[in-house]
Amino acid sequence: MSRRLCWALAGAVVLGSAVAGAQEVQTSKQEFSDPTGLELTVGLGFQAGAGYVYKNGERLDNTRGDVKLSDGANGGVPVLVELGYRLSPKWFVGAYGQFSYILTKENPYSCPSGFDCTATQLRFGPHVQYHFSPEASFDPFVGLGFGIAILNVKNSGTIPVPTPAGTLNAGFDLDSQTRGPEFVNVTVGGKWRLGNSLSFGPYLTAGYASYTARSGTTKVSLPAPVNQSTESPLTYADNGPNLAIMLGFRATLNP
Fold first, then answer.
1. Phi then psi for 177, rounded to 5 degrees?
2. Residue 70 φ then ψ, to 5°
3. Distance from first CA to last CA of the chain, Å, rounded?
4. What does the alpha-carbon distance between residue 33 and residue 118 come to, in Å, rounded to a whole number?
């Protein structure tokens, strides 16, 4: 009788250990799974581009032609924000917004020598992601979206202007906004677990857009003895199709 009791107790211990082990694995698994609910992502990186700001337009060297992204910029520094809802551990639906500080450079078409030139870009729109391994320590994902791209440019400097009083160095100011649809953007990346609700990892985004609308003004201010300012709207230019590539790191919080 005592032997049977010992075997029963041993069996109970083994069974209890197995159940406890299974519960421990399940608990560990839950700790590393993405919760559903609100999700916030912030990212920082480097941006490069190819294509055009506009085609067949008036340039600052008094010629008419194309202005490429590579003519006026050495890249950009994008700050990314995503906000949305995790419908399930594998599916995220939300919106993205990105502000990029453009690293301008001198060129005869849009930023002549001696000019002070600044440019920024805004991108925003809806976005959806699929996560392949939401319960793993590293979770790769792919995202798809579309939206709007807006390029804001401000240039100022001096230009020679012929007048009845002779050629004068006039102040020149350009303020423009060029915008258009971002037809598609694709993001690939991955996230390492830093805790139950925080993750961090790299991302790469490629977006294809076209600047289709251009608005703004140019202002020419003549000094003494003329003392006259003239403000004119920007002239028409053809659409500027372009490709932007963003590479960086992003942190995600699941409150």
1. -130, 120
2. -70, -20
3. 57
4. 44
Q: Is the previous residue joined to 225 through a cis bond, with omega within 30 degrees of 0?
A: yes
> Taking 60 as the threshold, does the pLDDT of residue 15 lie above it?
no
In the chain, where the domains are located: 1-31, 35-253
- Give the rounded distance of the alpha carbon of 208 from its chain centre: 12
Between the alpha carbon of residue 222 and those of residues 7, 29, 59, 253, the distances in Å are: 104, 72, 20, 54
- Report the C-alpha gap between 127 and 90 in whole angstroms: 14
Helices (H), 32-180: 69-72
Average pLDDT over residues 164-170: 85
The burial class, CB within 10 Å (0-12 / 13-18 / 19+), for 54 is buried
**Each residue of 150-180: b (16+ CB within 10 Å) or e?**
bbbbebebeeebeeeeeebebebbbbbebbb
One-letter amino acid of 34: D
Residue ranges of E strands in the chain: 37-58, 64-68, 73-88, 91-104, 116-131, 138-163, 166-193, 198-211, 213-222, 228-233, 240-253
Map residue 27 onto helix, strand or coil.
Answer: helix
Residue 181 buriedness (CB in 10 A; 0-12 / 13-18 / 19+): middle
What CATH number does the domain located at 35-253 have? 2.40.160.20
Radius of gyration, CA atoms only, the chain: 29
Report, as an integer, the average pLDDT of 131-151.
95
Which amino acid appears at position 222 of this protein?
A: L
Asked if the model's pLDDT at residue 34 lies above 70, the reply is no
Q: What is the pTM of this model?
A: 0.83
Segment 197-205 mean pLDDT: 96
